[in-house]
């Protein structure tokens, strides 16, 4: 879409206003971290073409958007995907989105990358109310933020210098990187070309033939794309070497490192926890599709969301397609927290 200066309830944020917006978002760390650092990377490196919007009643209503929300969608329309932030204890303010018929095309699919689970639940409620829609193909990811600096100095076994070498990624590595990336359906090859040129990333290469064995790369949202290793090179310690090196560099560049880890990926979780990362909240990515019909499977929101999503925000007779064992309030319970 062409640049739309304002919608019903949202107005575009001028570049000169973005630093002040970042300062306001810092009040809501860690939940706002991804949106905050997307702005920071945009201002510093211009990796991708984003349009940022805030509620017209900002900061009283701390709801903000960016279009696109990811860098690849089937029709590559700017408003075909979106990034959204709203504090998880203020989700009722997302009613501003429900009434936003200028910036959103409710009769078309809407793609969203990993976003706080409470926001995604609220968006599904909005889609269902407006166009009988649902969240389809959702994938869960836990957000782990670097919180324990001392653990980053963990002494690691050195790489076998006669077998492999770790060095910065270059443009010739982009195809291998994109082929290994598990979310290549929502992030474009062009994005990775820009990232390799403009943001730090490391690869471990086989000395004999220069084959890329593993890689890690800072993303356009300021965190780190999950480290990927080719199957035949796994269990050699390459991943933790890459993660340690990139985490240190991301910190030096003024960012707070964070990663998205699938709940079932015990290996990645253990690797990043050794380096000082701790779970901050839970997120979901997926596609909101309209006109899903009356009979799609719907599950009620469990009661353990209530310390972030109040009973007044989401009536108990509302339903969503998230499985009950997977839908949570997105905040880490005390028993799950790990002390540095």
Automatic annotation (TrEMBL):
Residues 164-296 form the N-acetyltransferase domain. InterPro entries: Acyl-CoA_N-acyltransferase, Acyl_CoA_acyltransferase, GCN5-like_dom, GNAT_dom. PANTHER family: GLYCINE N-ACYLTRANSFERASE-LIKE PROTEIN, RE58324P. Pfam families: FR47 (PF08445). Gene3D superfamilies: 3.40.630.30. It comes from the Eukaryota. One of its GO terms (molecular function) is acyltransferase activity, transferring groups other than amino-acyl groups. This is N-acetyltransferase domain-containing protein. Transmembrane segments: none annotated.
